[in-house]
Amino acid sequence: MKSRIFPNAFALLGIYFLISIALFSTPSQAVKHNLFRTCEQNKFCKRNRHIADYASSQTLEGKEWTSPYEIDVATVALNKDKTAKLTGNILKTTPKGFVTLPFSLSFLKSGIVRFTLDELKRQDGNIEIPGNKNIRKERYNDLDKWTLIEENLVLSDGTELNIEQVEHDLKISYGGGNKLFLQSNPFSIKFYRNEELQVVLNERGLLNLEHWRAQPPAPKEGEEQVKDSELNVWELEEGMWEDTFDGKTDKKVRGPESIALDISFIGFKHVYGIPEHSDSLSLRETRGQAEGHHKDPYRLFNVDIFEYEVDSPMAMYGSIPFMQAHKAGSSVGLYWNNAADTYVDIIKTRPSNDKMISSLQSTQTHWISESGLIDIFVILADDPSEVNEKYGSLTGYALLPQSFAIGHHQCRWNYNDKSDVLEVNSNFDKYDIPYDVIWLDIEYTDDKKYFTWNEKAFKGHDDMIKELDETKRKLVAIIDPHIKAVKGYKQFETLESKNLAICNTEDKPYHGHCWPGESVWIDTLSPEARKLWVSWFGKDQSWAGNNDNLHIWNDMNEPSVFSGPETTMDKNTVHFGGWEHRDVHNLYGMTYHNATLDALNERYNYKQRPFVLTRAYFAGSQRTAAMWTGDNMAKWEYLKAATPMILTSGVAGMPFAGADVGGFFGNPSTELLTRWYQAGAFYPFFRAHAHIDSKRREPWLAGEPYTSIIKSAIQLRYKLLPTFYSAFYQASIDGSPILKPLYYVTPNNEDSFAIDDEFYVGDSGILVKPVTEEGATSVNLYIPDDEFYYGYDDHEKIYKGVGNYRIEAPLNTIPMLLRGGHIHVRRDRPRRSATLMKYDPYTLVIALDKNGQAKGEMFIDDGESYNYEKGEYLRPEFELDIETGILSGTNEDETVLTPYLKSLWVEKIIIIGANANQIKEGTAEVVEQDEAGEEVKRSVQVKRLSQNSAVIVGPRVKLANDWSIEFK
Ligand code: NOJ
Fold it and tell me: Which CATH number does 43-127+144-395 carry?
């Protein structure tokens, strides 16, 4: 494996390349552990783990460990305006007395509870920062505006709370069977739902907020360093003022400021979420004894992790500090609103006689962030879907993509020139393989200067984009946040002259290295920088032309800094507003891709919904971008790892997710490539991508039988586009994952809770288990409930009963079943792109449940614009009951019917699970209400397909109309 550096550039970039060669070129294909800090090496994490160890050693020795935090009860009060918010102070005991920490406990109308904890001295700016006037004194308190949906933070009315005082503690009922118990000394909060304890904050007493103190003076020669007099005996001092790793020193001018809290999920054996990690769906222990547990906590710190490893808690490109816990009967969501470097330890308790409540098969977690506020949201719910809906009310739902964006994307690093692009484009037509988007990686630019072209290779780029448009294809071009620091380059000169780049401690643009060599980074936390960014995408900018089929890929936005610590930005750089990068590290990538979305919205004057792909992300990124899992490898274990990663992303509210099909590094065997397309055909974001050093692998190069098998997997995706699109719509209104883990459908079947190699596609009932083993010709598929399941293509195969089933899966087969009770929608006419399918008729596929019933719904709009927000859409619901013999299609929503929507019709209806007595061959009667509301009757032909299925040929019902079909 060669380096990912473009080889010819080596000579040009001197020292930088010496550094990056060391970092990025390795024949061994394994993550460089030495580049990334473990908890032990990241001293704020070590200090907090040390407290956890101290606390448990005390308990083991039979001594009592008590949290040094208590509520000052005299300060607790309900909001003056009588809204449901309690405020007061928590006191931290130190050897020098109490430190005052203002807290708030808010009860939102949505039923979510928010707890915040700040530090009075820093809040008031009553601290000294030696030598650094531009840095803010407060703990970072500006995150809400990026992550939260303000209008959904409305507080309940205080009168809706039922507060009962029990000595110094408070019992608060806050509606919907939810209650909490606020204990003052030691501080803890217990959350109950329907009288059952669900979550406890600070059960183990690991709450820690490192308060401000003056740095002890440096020792005089020959003297020992004076110990920090504010430290309790259980606290470590290490790394409070500076922390050196890999030869780089991070100076912490604000001193120690980490925060930590333990959160126990009572009776929950499974917790999920906190992407991004290449790991199982159900998170593993990080401190326990269980086999296969991790040694380090899960880390949330956006980094360009080169050649990442699977089954690992290591930090990756994105971070969403949202965790879900699930058990039969209830689910919990926990959102930790903090964008600093964060670790999460997980311990699963076993039944014991231990005094802790959580010792009964529970999950204990320990959250540790380097800086910022403690700001958490607790969601109690009946099931995982409700958790997603509520979490989405906080951080937003995914943007509904255009239909092209959920089609098949073709990328590689790089398509060499204009003719290469156009040739690949026409080869898709030649081989009759559908695709919608071709991508350009960094080599299209002039010397990695974004917003420019390599005019030699891409001479006539405007015509190229137009030609793609003529074949109804789009172009996605990469634009990264590092801006080459070179005179004469407009973007650099503007950032520098207006001081809109991320700054060093001297308030000058920070310089580091990335693809172009020496670079600066746009500071998209700054409103002015964002405006500038927006202007660079305008149709008046010559690089972008005035085409309407250009969309954007944002890469390297962790940000990736080859010369920086852990391949990222120094934590003591400074952003707009005087905030240290330390506070906003995980947020930066989102501010950047949000700015790109704004730019495309402006470019297109809000006439079409832009597509932006991002590598770095945070809570809220779902509102504006799709993500992919970064630089995987062309190996079977990475194909396997992609499924749980994509499922986790969906669980954490970021459903538009995918992995590089084929694997980024290396060359997949034709078998692996084929299996990857079969799996990728179900990824919400479906893109083939490859490293610059890998061999070309467009589908037609695989040769037969592979090319045909790949083609039919892609065609299947295109058939299912209406089903995917409807799932995307659902995600955009209630946060539902596009690919659902089994436990979403069977929330009471414990055996399904950890399954992460199978999934359902939205609410369609399609259950898929991609083949991820080399040479496999069958899979063991687990059916989690006793509904009927049918072979997707072979309707004669019916699976009944919970358990494992061997499903034949020769290379040309994707193991997939159809769960009884669902109706899903397809478009069965093969076309070259999603855009070209726009006017095609639909096929309904009905799979009857045990009782002979099925239901389904779909969403249709123009697939491009924001007009659906003004009511221009259809949301037909379908229902069949075999007993009454009536199938119906109805539109409940009052929508605005455009000529396009009125033109859409059904060409075929397949019914699975009905025998020849239930649906007879012959005719059925269609009753359709036409536009004028008149009933029109006609008969249609019904044919038997097999013993178990039938088809209605050409029912021609319009989806905008209400209709029924009665079987005789
Ligand atoms: C890193 C990205 O992860 C990869 O997909 C891309 O090809 C390279 N950067 C080059 O832009």
Answer: 2.60.40.1760
